[in-house]
């Protein structure tokens, strides 16, 4: 008996009677919710949403349509957060993949798939199609930058640096590549190298948004 509990003598304790009909309705509701949830998970599984090589992430880089300059924006120093992709889009992506199987020289479809997977954060899939594209057209700095950013979002900083450097080698004035190289080197702990790349990015176009972002990073170390 707990401290302060009243002693009940010669009294019959009556338990409350549950409304059986109400209890039954609740059980049926939980059962229906369970069935619907299980059905949804089965659909997502067969659609490939839970494949280990298809991490669903919404990235911080907004892309344009296929064939245009994809590296419109550059990553911040914070990696992106997960977001689930819808089934309709997955079906569209699979359809584009079939077009590549039918025509292995369809580079436009390759870069489109890379861009679409990139947009939805499927970075391993994006890497696959960017590399497929670069096998056909290796001197494409924009695609090399996006390939590097894909590796960056997977926290594979050495490969991110590798492909961005290739982009700069092809086009030394590629401002986004220079800006991104600053971020990658900061992640690698190479602060002096990062500062050098940000300064180079500013020199390319001092009035651009990337120059402004580069200055904000440089201000942290001044």
Give the topology:
Elements (H helix, E strand, L loop, with lengths): L19 H28 L9 E2 L22 E2 L4 H16 L4 H13 L3 H14 L4 H13 L3 H14 L4 H14 L2 H14 L4 H11 L3
Antiparallel strand pairs: 1-2
Structural features, described:
The chain is mainly alpha-helical. It has one domain (53-219): Serine Threonine Protein Phosphatase 5, Tetratricopeptide repeat (Alpha Horseshoe). The chain has 9 helices and 2 strands. A two-stranded antiparallel ribbon has the order 1-2. It is globular, with a radius of gyration of 27 Å. The model is unreliable at 1-18 and 41-69 (pLDDT under 50).
- Count of DSSP helices? 9
What's the assembly state of these chains? single chain
What is the total domain count?
Answer: 1
Estimate what percentage of residues fall within beta strands: under 5%
Q: Low-confidence segments, ≥5 residues, pLDDT <50?
A: 1-18, 41-69
Rg, rounded, reads 27 Å
Annotated CATH homologous superfamily: Tetratricopeptide repeat domain
Please state the overall shape, judged from the principal axes of the Cα atoms.
globular
CATH class: Mainly Alpha
Order of neighbouring strands in the sheet with most strands: 1-2
Write down the secondary-structure element order.
Answer: HEEHHHHHHHH
What's the β-strand tally? 2
CATH topology: Serine Threonine Protein Phosphatase 5, Tetratricopeptide repeat
């Amino acid at each position: 008996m707990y401290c302060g509990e009243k002693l009940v003598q010669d009294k019959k304790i009556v338990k409350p009677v549950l409304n059986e009909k109400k209890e039954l309705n609740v059980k049926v509701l939980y059962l229906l919710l369970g069935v619907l949830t299980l059905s949804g998970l089965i659909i997502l599984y067969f659609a490939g949403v839970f494949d280990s090589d298809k991490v669903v992430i919404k990235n911080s880089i907004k892309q344009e349509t296929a064939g245009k300059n994809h590296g419109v924006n550059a990553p911040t120093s914070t990696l992106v957060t997960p977001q689930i992709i819808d089934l309709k889009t997955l079906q569209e992506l699979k359809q584009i993949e079939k077009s590549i199987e039918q025509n292995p020289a369809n580079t436009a479809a390759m870069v489109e798939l890379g861009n679409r997977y990139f947009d939805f954060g499927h970075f391993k899939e994006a890497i696959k199609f960017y590399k497929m594209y670069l096998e056909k057209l290796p001197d494409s700095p924009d695609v090399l930058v996006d390939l590097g950013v894909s590796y960056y979002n997977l926290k594979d900083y050495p490969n991110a640096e590798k492909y961005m450097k290739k982009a700069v080698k092809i086009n030394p004035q590629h401002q986004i590549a220079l800006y991104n190289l600053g971020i990658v080197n900061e992640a690698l702990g190479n602060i002096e190298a990062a500062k050098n790349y940000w300064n180079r990015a500013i020199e390319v176009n001092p009035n651009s948004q990337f120059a402004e972002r580069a200055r904000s990073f440089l201000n942290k170390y001044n």
